[in-house]
Request: fold
Amino acid sequence: MKQMINIALPKGRLGEKVYDIFEKAGYDCPSIRENNRKLIFENEVNGVRYFWVKPSDVAIYVERGAADIGVAGKDILLEYSPDVYELLDLGMGKCRMAVAAEKGFRDNTAQTLRVATKFPNIAKKFYSEKSREIDIIKLNGSIELAPILHLSDVIVDIVETGTTLRENNLEPLETIVPISARLIANKVSYKFKNAQITALCEKIKLNCDTVVK
Reply:
């Protein structure tokens, strides 16, 4: 029996696309395609055990060693700075972290800038590098409402197509960083399961056109 590699996949469409990549690379697990409510799936022949977790929790599972590897968005890695290795940019789930505001907004640098966001650490770092004084307003949803209701001056959020911004009379002002899905590894696992993890990475790079090499 092969030594098992534990893989944390993000629930949802991205996770399903990521599994397609692993399957194409030869790490299939047929039971994951079945219509059931299981959370853990394994294939002893291929030496893989998959489990579905909330996207924002993937890095925690990997950092803590419950998973050897996993797939997390670059936004999560930047916001929480987990102590993991970033192995590959899978080139999937592409979007960007951006500053947005109501159309026609002009920043009055004489006043503290009110910033609503789900990503306070990313926002603080971005504005710190600009030496801009800000007031962070941490929200968990409907970020676009903040400037409309004058709770904030700007927002820092993920922008994919920009449709939601346009429909709410908002516009992106500047891009902070491009975002995509990254393959990450637990540092201890990478040391003790290096051969298996390295082989998996190489097969993914060879078999998947989406991977940014």
About this structure: DSSP finds eight helices and eleven strands in the chain. The chain has a mean pLDDT of 94. The radius of gyration is 20 Å. The first helix runs from residue 13 to 24.
